[in-house]
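Bug report

Summary: structure tokens for GAF domain-containing protein differ between web form and batch submission.
Environment: batch mode, default settings.
Steps: 1) Submit the sequence below via batch. 2) Compare with the web form result.

Sequence submitted:
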Amino acid sequence: MTQRLAADVVPADPSFDRYARMVTRYLAVPMAMVTMLEEDRQVFPGADGLPDDLAQTRSTPLAQAFCQHVVAREAPVVVTDVRVDGQFGDDAVVSELGAIAYAGWPLIDEAGATIGVLCAVDTEPREWTREDLDALADLADACSAEILYRRRQQRAEVAAGHAREISHRSQVLLALSEGLSATRTLDDIAYAVEQIAVENIGCLHAGIWLRSSFLGDHENPDQLRFVSDPTVRWTSAQVNSEVATDAEHPVAEALRNGRPLFFRDRDSQNLRYPHLSASTQVGEARALMPLSLGQAFGTLVLLWEDVQDVSAQMRITIAALTSYVAQAVQRAVLYQERVDASMTLQSAMLTRLPEAPGMDLTARYRPAAVHDRVGGDWYDAVVTASGETNLMIGDVSGHDISAAAVMGELRSTLRAFAWANDDLPAANVGRLDEAMETFGIERFASLVFARIEKADGDGSRVIHWTNAGHFPPLVVHPGGQVELLDDGTAPDPVVGIDASVPRHNQQAVIPRGSMLLLYTDGLIERRDEPIDEGLQRLRIAASRHHGLTPGRFLDEVVEDLVGISHEDDVALLAVRFG
């Protein structure tokens, strides 16, 4: 059995040269070689004493190779004089090497197959002694052991390389999983993909193009639109921010064909798509991966700074990356659809405030920056037939559509009680508690219900209110003084727990020009902060902005206390008494 030497064993190998020198020294011969057979020649990766021309080429035609007989027989071949031995009658061997006597010993691999020969050559007839042949056999065994070690080391290096690739792939996928797990919007995903591709697979840029119909634009369905990462300047992507799905363009072709496109450099891409503008192009190697979950809906584009062929292992990593991105994009689109539906539902449930004589009513609602962007906070105002104005603000437990549904029930029920019953707030809240028990509404809610009487002669207003486990109303006086309407006693329990609990009314007189503020807990509550600190921040903000119109007042207070990112819903209802 003949096998070709592994790729790392090449001519002029110093280690094999050392074996050849040991043979010439121990057997006292002028020449020795470590030979390997190729398809049409024998090569000498190890040699000592070769004629000058052979020492340069280290090969001879296969027809002149003594060693082919050792490989063919898979056994030693020993010849005293080739000139008189009938099986070795090639004059070319004698004339080129000057070989008269020959002793060749097989070099074997781990399977016992002969893969080469360690041979001794003499230029005179020689009777090889037992000591000669034993020494040659020992050296051949040692040489075989080194070849075996090299092959095992080579396999180990290949395995280690595979292990490194797998480890790297795992790190990339872990980074991608962690990076995408916190994303909710397409902009979040664009940012995460760019960061992960740059940091983990050495990209210059990474970007996503999505079919417009997938994004809900059915008027222009045949466009691919770039999802921009606002933190990165990528001019070429912006120039190609909209690509027709039927265009001769790599982004569109990857989508249409549902197959990846790989280019080792920019020129090979432009040769295929000569009409592309090269003026803004950056990077060299490119990979364009269709984003698909059953049907292609976009393309992921990866760019590298340098020219390179994307390896098979890297392609596996990129395929996994593409799958993760496709799933994240679909989640983001579904999430946005859910948010849009939730916001529509929430908007439908939030009341259009009535006109109340002598009062300026304004409200704001800010959904939580997490969850479904819909929840259980609400406000309401009802002007009765007798002229009193009822104000309500409340918070149903939860931040999801279920909480919003319960909120809608409570808001509608309380609104009906306020319109139909000319009672003080505590009586109507008691009725709500009884209705929740009757209807089996198992959520609980905090709320403030306030009734504002018609103005007195000096323009002041009498307010009656009841507090069911909520934060106290706040009054901002014309000079900027801030007062919490809190008599020092604990508020009544939240509604939805025990309908038999008595409810209590409180009363105050509000001067003309003052502003009354009702609010939910998302305005002032913070993790790891005492509630008194949140109330103090509210007092400061309310005093600072007291001279503004109710609308601007609410906007500035929300900005001061909440900002852009917040974990809870916020509802506010303000009344300026004229």
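Above is the batch result. After comparison, the two runs are identical; trailing whitespace caused the diff. The radius of gyration is 43 Å. The longest strand covers residues 114-122.
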